[in-house]
Records
---
Amino acid sequence: MKINRLLEIVTILLNRETVTAKELADRFGVSSRTIYRDIDALSSAGVPVYTNKGNSGGISLLEDYTLNKAMLSKSESESLLLALKTMGATSYPEADAIIDKLGAIFKNNQTTNLPLIELKLRCGEKVFSRLYDTFDSECISKNDDDSYDLTVTLPEDEWVYSYILSLGGNAEVIGPEHIREIIKIRAKEIIEKY
């Protein structure tokens, strides 16, 4: 689809200073003439794309061009990158490649200001399938008493607290201690409501 190709061309140009029409044509399985029409379409849409002739020539974007102002606010881009980082820590290792690409788009190497924590949970058999559905199997180990330990690095945010609470009495926070305290406080608040 043309719109997907146009967006991917912009993404490629954001990640590389210059790319040739032939490289793009080969990548998308279209002719160089089609790529030049795509470049014209991007230019007409206000994307600051230009071409240079010669041995070191090719297609480029203006150096300071980013997509975050056109598509997403700073807060939205940070939220998107945080979500992808969380996915990468779970069972989506390809999220790291997407984070790198989007980091270039947003001209932002830091995904968020949230601190990373090494979360350690001990869970019962009743929720082990949820652990495997959510996290990479390398993060999970089985204990002699048929419980499971989860050790994973995540950005500390509401998702972490909600996930732990969703496991109910089938999970215990081993560390860090401040997460354990937050879960205790929230569990007491839940009990008070009922």
Note: The two ends are 53 Å apart (CA to CA).
---
Amino acid sequence: MTEVTAVTAEYQVPPSWMGAGLEMRRLDSISVIEVAAWPGGEAALEKLLAVTGKDCRNTLHLAPHRYWLLNAAARSQILAAAQDLAVTEVSDALIIMRLSGPQALPLLDRALPIDLHTSQFASGDSATTVLDDITLTVLNRGDAIDVFCRRSLGAALWHALRPISEQPG
């Protein structure tokens, strides 16, 4: 049993790590609700988004008629809309890492196959991409970058980013 515990501990995501000009921190307190419109239910989705707001720092547009709502204050309205929309609480399925500091954007720009220059990836923008076969959703918060991935791949993401963060920029 000791061996299993040791292996498991090795692959857990640490709460934070700091390097030169970069801090990576695991966020455990953000709730994420996914909402999507059933065919013909686009009006219900627009009505819900009018209530919750389309603040780009708390609403990620994933695909047509599909959003993630972060820390949604209007939780009761979201759950009430479940009759007309597909509503799923996905917080427990995700791990969120916040990268901050002057090296956060350059680090991800080296690591990801998308253009993260601020002219293309402005504050509030989000994108879905991959890193080492890990599907990521990246949100530019302006002062930090939030990286979302499936919880089961969180340690793999951490171990993929650490060596890149230690490379000279």
Note: The longest strand covers residues 94-100.
